[in-house]
Fold MarR family transcriptional regulator.
Amino acid sequence: MTTRTASWLPLSPGERAVALEVLVHGPLSRSEIARRLSLSAGSLTRLTKPLLESGLLVEVPEGAALAEVRQGRPSQPLDIVAESRSFVGFKITEDMVYGVVTTLRSEIVTRYDRPLTTHDPDRVADQLGEMTAELARAHPGLAGIGIGVGGLVQERAVVGESPFLEWRDVRLAELVEERTGLPVVVENDVSALVEAETWFGAGRGLDRFAVLTIGAGIGYGLVLGGTRVPCAEEDRGFGRHWIVNPNGPLTPEGARGSAVSLLTIPSIRYQVQAATGREMTYEEILAGAAAGEPMPARVVDEAARALGTLVAQISNFAMPQKILLAGEGVGLMEVAGATVEETIRAHRHPLAAPVHLETKVSDFHDWARGAAVLAIQVLVLGTAKA
Amino acid sequence: MTTRTASWLPLSPGERAVALEVLVHGPLSRSEIARRLSLSAGSLTRLTKPLLESGLLVEVPEGAALAEVRQGRPSQPLDIVAESRSFVGFKITEDMVYGVVTTLRSEIVTRYDRPLTTHDPDRVADQLGEMTAELARAHPGLAGIGIGVGGLVQERAVVGESPFLEWRDVRLAELVEERTGLPVVVENDVSALVEAETWFGAGRGLDRFAVLTIGAGIGYGLVLGGTRVPCAEEDRGFGRHWIVNPNGPLTPEGARGSAVSLLTIPSIRYQVQAATGREMTYEEILAGAAAGEPMPARVVDEAARALGTLVAQISNFAMPQKILLAGEGVGLMEVAGATVEETIRAHRHPLAAPVHLETKVSDFHDWARGAAVLAIQVLVLGTAKA
DNA sequence: TGCCGTTAGTTCCATGTCGAAAGAAATCTT
DNA sequence: AAGATTTCTTTCGACATGGAACTAACGGCA
């Protein structure tokens, strides 16, 4: 627990670029890396040598992967030793802490959750410390901790404001560093998920990429040139003022007809409950809509149209190469995907590039994994700043 | 006319970065450039020397500009010799060719327009050649030509499709190069305007920047990281499928309630004409709205709301640091700017960064100037590719 | 089987860029 | 007039880079 790893510094910028390329884009031969980074073959020999000696990279057997029949000397792929470092990611919700351990490549190795019984900052930090200690037993090589919190996070270290925890200016990174001796990064949960998908998920290798999450609230993130665009409102919840349909429903949260009132799980449940008097779970509503029950079907249909409109607007104005729909509320796509697609088409120029839409139902461990990716980034890039 | 200037190559990447910084950001001292480009003072002495010797940069008297009282050796600002090169920009419309000559810094020096009496590609190229020859008499040092055309332009050289000229696959750059001996860049007019504003206008120095033009049609351009995002539909006209208000008017162009049917000059005139039976010019409609005439006021009000909604959506999803409203149809802002602002606020999170909105009424010479900037870019960057 | 073409990777060196440090220049302060 | 301060220049060592020549490992072909 005192393994304080000060990033894999010292790496020269060139070495770091090579390591990053291999980390994100899987096993690559030296000549392939040379092509991707526009470097000479000679430079690659030079840059990879210290990385191989330090054990961060290994030469892997060509074998399975590329079955192309080419002549000439076979290439020698290099790969990151993903297991050489482990990372912890936590997602804090009102009543639970979800934890994961991941490899360098952000594959989840272990899950470990515990109820959160207090919101006192020191007690929460204690609990995170204990959970880390527990995880460290099975994974001795922990290199860093990432923590995702809903709310405003500053400097990747301080929780400026979190309504559900009732925190203001809690120096969470510091508190957990004291207890674990590991470098800690704290970030807004949506931002963390976006970063994770950019490095290792749907947005890997893309220049422009957007993420829209639907769950208890709406989340949105835009990545340009491989970097997430920061924005002022990101930590206070999106979509309350995205008026999708001025004639839409009025719900407790969000303006009339806003994305929040049309799409979030609580709003959909509220609408069905208000219309039918029945308390139904989100899954029951989706099932009911699929089975043709009138009210669930109407609400789900309206939500699907709203989602299609939103996706089209994002495509039209932000022009991402890909949009990822994530969160607990994207089950909507399975039931009403056709309506969404149709609405997107209606709001797009017929000659415009088709929207590349990817759907990924995510649970709380995916959010925790997103936080772990931040710790990976710190190690790789050598800085906690965004 | 045979001065074929093959860009200001040969410049090293470092020299080019310095030249570009001075070109775009005005007179700068060596130490200031060093700070901006994160280079050492020594490097700046080295990099500026050949630029000064070649006559591209000059040392200018400190004088007027910064009246700060500082001690120490006064700085020695360097400036581009903006007049050392001249550029021609053309904007081709259905019945006119608008021409300008600009300096290296894209200041318009001369305007020269001529009616377009034919759409035959060779005859049009002839006319452009004649106009260039005419302009070259007063400006011997022409270094390049930029041409802006409404329609699809490929490779910055070929007009793939232009409905109003009835062109398909016209190698316009080649035709004009043959006649003038100068390097020629052809680009979609909206794209050219966006590039111009990015380098020398409202978007100067910004990382994320959006342009929305309103005129005969709608134009949109997004600049990220200093580079314009290309998109498939840009050359076929935007906004026909941006449904802003599903209950909006139905006009000859655009889907019901689309940006085109709510905002373009022809659609606004159509709506007023359909409701009142009177043919009114755009200016008359704006004046009428300001004076309280019911129908013009209603149409203008609805347009203002649509514009506000669009701007808010662009802000919400593309997150630019600034949005420029340009074109012949932004007179709307003078009459109904308050409604626009109000609508933007209604569609934005109260804590979100305020939208930085700039309005610039532009005429056809501004479009021609945009085209000239492309020629400047080619000279400076040494490539015609986007 | 052995030669050749091809591609991958290595070694070595010339080149060019960079930053650090020290010095020169130009101005203001005291 | 001396010192402080900032700008700019010069010099020099460090170092990343690309290119050339070379070795390595494979398939194709006679």
